[in-house]
Amino acid sequence: MSVSAEVLARAPLEQLAGEIDPLSSPRPRSNIRPLSPMPDYVEHRNGVNEVGKLSAEAVVREYEAAVKEIEALGTELQLAAKNCEAMVAGVHEMIAEIKEFAAGYRDQGKRFFLKIEAVSLMTTEVRDTCEALKKKIATDTLSQ
Hints:
Elements: H1 3-10, H2 13-20, H3 50-143
């Protein structure tokens, strides 16, 4: 919105009607109210005419509005960074849980591996015993 549009938007309707009516006297420039306070890092110099003051104020207000947007972006980035940090912390916790789960799963696999091998060894021993027993029975039967 331009400075003149903002000034017109803030002016009372009677004053606007008076400015539009060609027969009425123009409003003195000293009655123009500033739109918003100027930033404290600038101030008018002596001798600057009203047009220069208004132009400088308009420019500095546009810059200040841009600064506010930039600062808002910085705030959004800080929030995004905090969210990322929280997400990273959550990921680290999840990785620790996954490592713990994987270690338990590996231990369970090792237990099954050892059980299967133990059963396999026992089965081999049983077969060997059975084979030895068959031979002994066969030898005893033949010797009788």
